[in-house]
Amino acid sequence: MQAKDGNPPDGGYGWVVVVSAFMVMGLTVAVLKTFGLFFVEIQQHFDELASTTSWITSVTIAVFHLGAPVASSLCVQYTHRTVVITGGLLAFSGMALGFFGLNMVWMYATTGFLQGLGISFSWTPAISIVSHYFSKKRALANAIASAGECAFAFMFGPFFQWLISQYGWKGALLIIGGIQLNICVCGVLMRPLAGSSFLEAKFVLYAIFGILAAMSFFVPPLFLVPLSYSLGIDESWTASLLSILAMVDFGGRLLCGWYANLHLTKTIHLLAMAITLISTSLMLLPLANNYLSLAIFTGFYGFFFGTTVAIHITVLADVVGMPEFDSALGLFMLIRSTGGFVGPPLAGKSGSALKFPLFSSGVSEPRST
After folding, report:
1. Which pLDDT score, from 0 to 100, does residue 184 have?
2. What is the pTM of this model?
3. Where would you tag: which of 19, 243, 251, 368 has the fewest CB atoms within 10 A of its CB?
4. In the chain, how many domains are there?
């Protein structure tokens, strides 16, 4: 059972929870964001279209969001700690079973479904418990916790590429699954604090934001690698794009979290500005035609993505209030699942229509810069 309700400590053991959540973010969403490095390998192995291969990530994203209400309910019934540990075991199972790589349906069920459920059961309670431990410093605490996604993605880019080159994509999946077992250790550190509550129906415009945002959030990281190949960029440079994305994303989160903590501007106004700027950077993507321009696009997108992610959960807490936050977070993620599910395949079909070499079944070799 969870502890009785009380005032958030805004510090103390809360910082241990923040560090644990930081690790969970890195071992879940950072893996998902860096999965683009496996995209070409899996596409080549099964000789499939980009839109077909992208369903692996689509299933992961959809289950990640669809599982959030279940994870929230389990947090209320049991504890955040228990759900996070369960998520770690599920994430490991998804990657470990993906190692067998029997066919695309198998990949959808393992690296897609099980991995998505593991991410959902880990991410949802981790980000939720941080909000319960903090009130005045909630924006900063959430920004620091979410920055784990960027810090790990910065390292995972070159690390995953090395794993693939040394052990193949199947062996790399197995090793990554083993690393994800550390989620269970993080879960043990998440000491229960807040009690349970129920959700009243509220947050329509915010729900629409969730759907539209999820449609595009994971598309750039997923297709950044094949897009760079299609522009003739050598594969030794492609992983650096993911590292650039992670680095500026990290900076955007911490800077926005620090500024939001000053309470000079309403967080919902900050979110509106961040969304406007990230949309602008996405619209400028067609101008990228070489490594330098693609790196610049990646930098702008990554920074404003970081500012968006740093505060959008804080805005949700402001919209519904903390007594209803757990259930609201689950419902919000459920609503977002629609966008997350259709976004990558739509992007894959768009790439095929534009006739990028790696967005078709005939995969060409990358050229050197």
Report:
1. 95
2. 0.69
3. 368
4. 1
Residue 368 within a domain:
no
For residue 347 the two structure tokens come to: 């992007």
Q: Are 281 and 304 in contact (CB under 8 A)?
A: yes
- Per the domain annotation, does 70 fall within a domain? yes
Q: With respect to residue 205, please indicate whether it lies within any of the assigned structural domains.
A: yes
pLDDT tens per residue across span 234-255: 777 877 888 888 899 999 999 9
Phi/psi of residue 250, each to 5°?
-55, -50
With a CB cutoff of 8 Å and minimum separation 6, the contacts of 168 are 41
In which domain, by residue range, is 343 found? 14-356
Q: Is 25 within 8 Å of 145 (Cβ atoms)?
A: yes
pLDDT tens-place string over residues 85-127: 999 999 999 999 999 988 999 999 999 999 999 999 999 999 9
Q: Are 36 and 56 in contact (CB under 8 A)?
A: no
Q: Which of 45, 152, 31, 175 is nearest to 107 (CA)?
A: 45
- Nearest partner of 30 among 230, 346, 235, 247, judged by Cα: 247
CA distances from 104 to 47, 48, 225 (A): 10, 9, 20
Find the DSSP H helices in 50-180: 50-53, 55-66, 68-77, 80-98, 104-107, 115-133, 138-180
Look at residue 45 and tell me if it is in a domain: yes
Helix axes 205-217, 219-230, angle to 10 degrees: 30
End-to-end CA distance of the chain: 58
Q: Is pLDDT at 266 greater than 70 in this prediction?
A: yes
- CATH number for the domain that contains residue 189: 1.20.1250.20
